[in-house]
Amino acid sequence: MADAASVSPRPRRDVLIVEDDTATQMLLMALMGTKGLTCSLARDGIEALERLSEYDFAAIILDLVLPRLNGFDLMRRLAAERPELPPRTIILTAASEWALHGFNEVALARVVLLKPTDIESLADETLACVAGEAPRPHTHRGRSYRLTQIEK
Q1: pLDDT at 7
Q2: Domain positions in the chain
Q3: What is the model's pTM?
């Protein structure tokens, strides 16, 4: 039997989905499940903070428009209190690029994907995040750009 110190731990494959829309929750859970990822749900920023206090997720998929504590405020709190988490956060939002202007914490996120987005790109980005790989460039609505920072 192998010595416990010589055995590599299994990589974490747990994703926190912070989304208030039930249909989108179901889609994301199904998509991530087909990729071998385990998901937990939070319906708003308050639930997300509760889940994050209980477990260290490998990746977070975050909507910005949420009840109670929205995604903008959640990102601000994470940046201030848990700076290791924003680089593992994939923002998936219907907010326009214009609405994101002035939201400085968006630059701390791993990537920002605007809804509607290609679900395979989202899955690939989540798998890359879980594996600790660098963010990938994305194409959205005919434009190719790296969405790690919205142009100011």
Answers
A1: 41
A2: 11-145
A3: 0.83
Which pLDDT belongs to residue 87?
92
Contact 100, 91 (CB under 8 A): no
Structure confidence by residue, pLDDT tens digits, 70-87: 999 999 999 999 999 999
Beta pairing class for 138-140 and 111-114: unpaired
Q: What is the CATH number of domain 11-145?
A: 3.40.50.2300
Judge whether 130 and 123 are in contact, CB under 8 Å: no
Taking a C-beta distance cutoff of 8 angstroms, is the pair 35, 15 a contact?
no
Using DSSP bridges, classify how beta strands 143-145 and 138-140 pair: parallel, antiparallel or unpaired.
antiparallel
> What average pLDDT does the segment 5-9 reach?
45
For residue 27, the model assigns a pLDDT of 95
CB environment 127-144: b (16+ within 10 A), e (fewer)? bbbbeeeebeebebeeee
What residues have CB less than 8 Å from 66, skipping those under 6 apart? 18, 19, 20, 43, 44, 45, 74
